[in-house]
């Protein structure tokens, strides 16, 4: 039986993209965007052309039957002499003049719009993206993505080309790097993964670049990103990020929504197979000592979730878990009681995006079935589908990861139940020297799993 999603079981696949064709693909993409239904542009261009034609006919009637008859006659005789009827019939000359006039009118409108856009601070080359976002993407599938780390922001950067109805629910238990320093100093939630997601969904390339700028010098600033400091400022001003969420989305021009799984500072606690407990996710891998993670929890345990988060889950058409670190990105976001309860009660299908490789220390020795089993144990619901990559990882990449203690995450030893949940597609980024997901390919594969896509809508 064929799979209605168009995704297949594990197998060879993939393709190589060329940087030379990137510009051509971008031009083709923008051309298709102009032709997208519901954009609210083609209808007005058509109306303009029809009205221009009617205006031309009306003006011709006025000049031929009114006081300008003499002028119209002289124009026709002049055009007739200029174009030489034996070379170019007079009616063809008339159509040519009319086409030139219509083209000039359209050019004048385009230049007028360009001037108006510049005066409002919107770059003309971004106008199409803004119109497309508000008109077409606003009707896209309602997708909720749960997790953290670079995997989640990578996914969002691909999904925002398909829908404006995106909600990212981000784990905020990170206690390392810039996030850890700000948490300790201000008693706030970890802002790092939130910053990455805001940058991925921002409609402004300039803002996205600024958010990710990391200070390389300056006492107290070195190591911090501008985005982290911005969120820390808003958190301090509003007494927490909960009251600043609306301002953040508006200021950063986010295509969708980004919310923390909880607005209360929390610490990840991992229980290992040798009975030890490790507090804090930043040092988890280093303290494993050959043991495996049996379970994780958050302290404090009873953490509140934002009403907007629960509302987004309730209205979701698809819930995506990952990609990202299993025990330090995906599961921590599921440990907020109200978030887990809302996902369990949701009628939307849940998709787990499998990592490409295991993570040294954290998931060493774990297979894909172990990953799914861990999610089920902490969430209380087994993912409906597991999306995995079908493109073989190059041997040199495998060797480089193996030297660090990581292996390709595969289906070896997987049971029949998991096999039935697998959906696969070529997801490996063709131009990346690391084993990473291609955002565009991953987003396309997930969109095909939405109910409306499966029904052919």
UniProtKB/TrEMBL annotation:
<dbReference type="GO" id="GO:0005737">
    <property type="term" value="C:cytoplasm"/>
</dbReference>
<keyword id="KW-0472">Membrane</keyword>
<dbReference type="GO" id="GO:0008360">
    <property type="term" value="P:regulation of cell shape"/>
</dbReference>
<feature type="transmembrane region" description="Helical">
    <location>
        <begin position="88"/>
        <end position="112"/>
    </location>
</feature>
<dbReference type="InterPro" id="IPR038136">
    <property type="entry name" value="CofD-like_dom_sf"/>
</dbReference>
<dbReference type="InterPro" id="IPR010119">
    <property type="entry name" value="Gluconeogen_factor"/>
</dbReference>
<dbReference type="InterPro" id="IPR002882">
    <property type="entry name" value="CofD"/>
</dbReference>
<feature type="compositionally biased region" description="Gly residues">
    <location>
        <begin position="8"/>
        <end position="20"/>
    </location>
</feature>
<keyword id="KW-1133">Transmembrane helix</keyword>
<feature type="region of interest" description="Disordered">
    <location>
        <begin position="1"/>
        <end position="23"/>
    </location>
</feature>
<protein>
    <recommendedName>
        <fullName>Putative gluconeogenesis factor</fullName>
    </recommendedName>
</protein>
<keyword id="KW-0812">Transmembrane</keyword>
<comment type="similarity">
    <text>Belongs to the gluconeogenesis factor family.</text>
</comment>
<dbReference type="GO" id="GO:0043743">
    <property type="term" value="F:LPPG:FO 2-phospho-L-lactate transferase activity"/>
</dbReference>
<keyword id="KW-0963">Cytoplasm</keyword>
<dbReference type="Pfam" id="PF01933">
    <property type="entry name" value="CofD"/>
</dbReference>
<comment type="function">
    <text>Required for morphogenesis under gluconeogenic growth conditions.</text>
</comment>
<feature type="transmembrane region" description="Helical">
    <location>
        <begin position="44"/>
        <end position="64"/>
    </location>
</feature>
């Amino acid at each position: 039986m064929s799979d209605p999603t168009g995704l297949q079981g594990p197998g060879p696949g993939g393709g190589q993209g060329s940087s030379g064709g990137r510009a051509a693909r971008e031009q083709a993409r923008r051309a298709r965007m102009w032709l997208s239904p519901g954009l609210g542009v083609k209808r007005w261009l058509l109306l303009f052309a029809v009205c221009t034609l009617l205006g031309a006919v009306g003006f011709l009637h006025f000049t031929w039957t009114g006081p300008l008859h003499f002028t119209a006659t002289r124009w026709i005789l002049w055009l007739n002499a200029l174009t030489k009827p034996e070379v170019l019939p007079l009616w063809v000359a008339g159509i040519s003049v009319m086409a030139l006039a219509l083209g000039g009118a359209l050019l004048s409108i385009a230049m007028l719009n360009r001037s108006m856009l510049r005066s409002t601070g919107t770059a003309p080359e971004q106008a199409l993206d803004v119109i497309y976002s508000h008109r077409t993407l606003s009707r896209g599938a309602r997708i909720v993505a749960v997790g953290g780390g670079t995997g989640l922001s990578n996914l969002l950067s691909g999904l925002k080309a398909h829908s404006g109805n995106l909600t990212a629910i981000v784990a905020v238990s990170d206690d390392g790097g810039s996030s850890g320093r700000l948490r300790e100093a201000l008693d706030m939630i970890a802002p790092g993964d939130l910053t990455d997601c805001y940058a991925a969904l921002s409609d402004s390339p300039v803002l996205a670049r600024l958010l990710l700028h990391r200070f390389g010098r300056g006492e107290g600033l070195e190591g911090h990103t501008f985005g982290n400091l911005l969120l820390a400022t808003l958190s301090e001003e509003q007494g927490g990020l909960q009251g600043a969420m609306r301002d953040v989305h508006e200021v950063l021009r986010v295509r969708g929504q980004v919310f923390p799984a909880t607005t209360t500072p929390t610490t990840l606690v991992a229980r290992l197979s040798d009975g030890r407990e490790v507090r804090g996710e930043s040092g988890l891998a280093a303290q494993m000592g050959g043991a495996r993670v049996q379970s994780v929890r958050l302290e404090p345990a009873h953490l509140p979730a934002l009403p907007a988060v629960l509302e987004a889950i309730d209205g979701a058409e698809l819930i995506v878990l990952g990609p990202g670190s299993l025990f330090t990105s995906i599961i921590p976001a599921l440990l907020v009681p109200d978030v887990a309860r809302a996902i369990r009660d949701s009628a939307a299908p849940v998709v787990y995006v499998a990592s490409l490789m295991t993570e040294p220390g954290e998931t060493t020795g774990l297979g894909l079935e172990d990953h799914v089993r861990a999610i089920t144990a902490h969430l209380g619901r087994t993912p409906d589908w597991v999306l995995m990559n079908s493109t073989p990882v190059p041997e040199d990449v495998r060797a480089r990861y193996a030297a660090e203690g990581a292996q390709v995450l595969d289906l070896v030893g997987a049971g029949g139940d998991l096999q039935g949940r697998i959906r696969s597609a070529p997801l490996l980024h063709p131009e990346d020297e690391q084993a990473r997901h291609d955002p565009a390919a991953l987003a396309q594969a997930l969109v095909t799993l939405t109910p409306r896509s499966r029904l052919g809508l």
